[in-house]
Specification:
Distance between the termini: 40 Å
Shape: elongated
Order of helices and strands: HHHHH
Oligomer: single chain
Length: 140
């Protein structure tokens, strides 16, 4: 069920951001979509045990974190900050699960991916809000 909700949210974000988003929203969307699609592919290539740390996924998550952090630092808007912060969680989870063997659990695995829902929701909200502000400023 959660997969279908996430997929619906991701498709909604794609539709809204592609239609109404500016460069920042589109860069964030592209980064998140590549990360969200790449993660299960790398899990399958790495043995499909999603409770074990995977270096490939760590690299993908880290690259997304760097891009989103640069976006947040260069932006004059607030919304990129929580998206970058939420992306830091899977990066830190890799270190925690690599060091603490007995910390690997179903809960840790679920918590690692659950922040994607919030990232997409923030991105949708930011795009709609920016679009509304543009309409007001242009007098429409």
């Amino acid at each position: 069920m959660a997969f279908w909700i996430f997929l619906t949210l991701m498709l909604l974000a794609i539709a809204i951001v592609v239609r109404h988003g500016q460069f920042e929203e589109r860069l964030a969307l592209a980064t998140l979509v590549i990360n969200f699609v790449g993660t299960p592919v790398l899990y399958l290539l790495g043995g499909a045990d999603w409770l074990q740390p995977h270096v490939g996924i760590f690299i993908l998550d880290s690259a997304a974190f760097v891009i989103l952090t640069i976006l947040a630092l260069r932006s004059k808007r607030f919304w990129p900050l929580p998206i970058a912060a939420f992306q830091m969680i899977p990066v830190m989870t890799f270190f925690v699960s690599s060091v603490g063997e007995n910390l690997r659990s179903y809960g840790l695995g679920v918590a690692q991916g659950s922040w994607g829902f919030l990232q997409l929701a923030i991105l949708i909200w930011a795009t709609i809000r920016t679009r509304q502000r543009q309409k007001i400023e242009s007098g429409m």
